[in-house]
Design a protein that fits this description.
2 domains, Four Helix Bundle (Hemerythrin (Met), subunit A), 8 helices, 56% helix, 8% strand, 4-stranded parallel beta sheet, alpha/beta
Length: 227
């Protein structure tokens, strides 16, 4: 079973639509970045870098893409902007191929101590709960004993959503009632993970912005109870 096979047909279709929209958006921005230019120069490369970073391609990946384009420019001596989209697609595809593997055994992370605790944090709507499920599934198919903790006790149906993912991945979950103290859930999860000799404990948390002091203090408390 592949990772994509872990999701329903509807989820796959939504994912594909999202990726298609992202692809169109990125390349539209790239086209605007080079409009009116006849060749790829430093200004064009700076514009491309800004577009890629702002499109969440990632700084490290953006740098690699820009470096590859610079190598092409140096090798070919001249590169016009009409060729740029094609080259960008080639270089991005090449990077994806380098980092892609169908082998599940390629998925790994340092598990020096048991249980290895992963706390998923971030702003609202970024896919934290789904990421918890993906990590749980990958660790499980690689032979690890995984336990989930439903510490997002704020968002409506968050606990139920994680329960559904846990059932699909066939991993146990520690949960309490809505509005329970998230730190208490995290503590119970870690306690259960130690008692059950689990390899990995993954804690889901509520979305929060960095400028919300009370929510950040809550996050610090969750971390403290697991130290």
């Amino acid at each position: 079973m592949t990772l994509l096979g872990f999701f329903s047909k509807e989820k796959k279709e939504n994912l594909n639509k999202g990726l298609e929209k992202t692809k169109e958006s990125v390349f539209l921005k790239l086209s605007r970045a080079v409009v009116g230019k006849s060749k790829v120069d430093d200004e064009v490369l700076d514009n491309l870098e800004e577009v890629l970073v702002s499109s969440d391609v990632g700084v490290a990946t953006t740098v690699r893409i820009i470096e590859r384009i610079e190598e092409r420019v140096a090798r070919d001596k001249y590169l016009n902007t009409n060729e740029l989209n094609s080259i960008l697609k080639q270089e991005i595809a090449s990077l994806l191929e380098e980092n892609n593997s169908s082998e599940d055994s390629d998925f790994s992370s340092p598990l020096k101590n048991k249980p290895h605790v992963i706390m998923i944090v971030g702003v609202n709507g970024t896919g934290k709960t789904t990421t918890v499920a993906k990590l749980a599934y990958q660790y499980k198919i690689n032979g690890k004993k995984v336990l989930l903790g439903a510490a997002d006790t704020f968002r409506a149906a968050a606990i139920d959503q994680l329960q559904i993912w846990a059932d699909r991945a066939e991993v146990p979950i520690v949960k309490q009632q809505m509005k329970s103290d998230p730190a208490s859930v995290a503590f119970d999860t870690l306690k259960s993970a130690v008692a059950g000799n689990y390899d990995v404990a993954i804690i889901d948390t509520a979305g929060r912005l960095h400028n919300k002091i009370n929510l950040m203090n809550e996050l610090a408390k969750i971390r403290r109870v697991m130290d």
